[in-house]
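Message: A physicist's question: would you kindly supply an amino acid chain plus fold tokens?
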Amino acid sequence: FEVLSDTDFGQQLPRLLADAKDRLEEAAFATGTGTAQPTGVVVGATSTTATVTTGAYVLADVYNLHASLPPRFRNSPNCAWVANVAQINRTRALDTAGGASFWTNLGKDQPEQLMGKPIYESSSIDPVLTTTHKPMVFGDFSNYYIVDRVGVSIIYEPMVTGTGASANVPTGQSGWFMYWRVGANVSTASAFRTLLT
């Protein structure tokens, strides 16, 4: 109650809620299980390409992952790479002859590309190189559907109550409950390949 009375929290709230929604959706669209949440692209992309050496990442893995995607999807204008920043930086470090920061040197403030396709960061994709992890996805994202019911509902609760022994006893707090409906899934599993370490 003091926060509501003494600050402009009401004006900050929409931005905070929008940021929370973006973070939840990013995680679900990348690695969501499909149970009570959208199916993430890493889960829906069931075709994998194993690294040359288990637990390691070398330049040949980039070429192999690229080549394993059928031309129909690889040549699509919607084809892209998605990885955690740790995996992106590992890929940057592969080019020791041209300089380990070759993307930075040649980017010229344009979107980064890997083998002529855009590469995007997802903080939810696993960056680990140990056995059975999937640190990178390559595919035609026109085959990943997000179905979003337009609109978000927010309910203001002026009196939050406790739980357990304090059930139905006011805590002296107020809150907001925000919900929306969204679903997502891979429509064609063969349109994607994940790198399997």
